[in-house]
Design goal:
8 strands; UPF0227/Esterase_YqiA; alpha/beta; Rossmann fold; AB_hydrolase_fold; 7 helices; two-stranded antiparallel ribbon; 6-stranded parallel β-sheet
Length: about 210
Amino acid sequence: MSRVHAQTLTHLLYLHGFRSSPMSAKAQQTLQWFSTHYPDVMVQIPQLPPSPQAAAELIEATVATWPHKRMAVMGSSLGGYYASWVAARYACPAVLLNPAVNPARDLARYIGQNTQWHRPEEAFYFKPEYIEQLRALDSRGAPCQAPHLVVIAKGDEVLNWQEMAERHADAQCLILEGHDHALTHAFAEHLPQIATFLYTLGEVRS
C-alpha cells in the first residue's frame, strides 16, 4: 500500500574518480537523467583537486548551505571513497559505484606526474603527503546511518570486487556479473534504479 512522502531529493553531489572529471560518461549520464526525469533536483559535479584534503574542503564548501536531510551523494571509484566520507559526515544517502576501499594503498604507485583521462594535455602532480590525507578521510568504522546502494562489478579490472563487497556488507549491494571498472555497459541500464534510490532518499516504497 502506497503512502504519501513529502521528503524527496533536492540536491545531489556527484564525485568523480581519480584522474577523471565532471565530463566522465557516468557523470554526464547522471546529469542528463536528472535533468530529464527529476528536473527539480540540483546536481553538482565539481572538479575535484588532486589533494584529498583540498577535495574535502571543496565538498564541504559545496554542500555547506544544502538541506542535509534532502541531499544525497554519488561517487565512482575514488569518488566513491569520498562519497562514503560525505555520507558518514552528513548522514545522507549514498550511491557508490565500484568504490575505492583502500586508496592510500592503491594510489601510492601514482605518486608523481599524472594526466587527466578527459584532458590528457592537463597534468597534475600526486604528492606523497596525499596518501596520509586519504587515510584521514577513511570512514571505516563509522556507522551507516543512512541508506547506501553500492554497485559492484565482479569484472572490475582495477579494484577487487570482494574487498568492495566486504567493506560495504551493511549496505544494499548490487553485484554485477562481469562488467568493468567504468561500468561501461552497465551504468545506463541500472541508472533508473539508481536515480529512483537517490530521489526517494533511499527509502523503499511500495
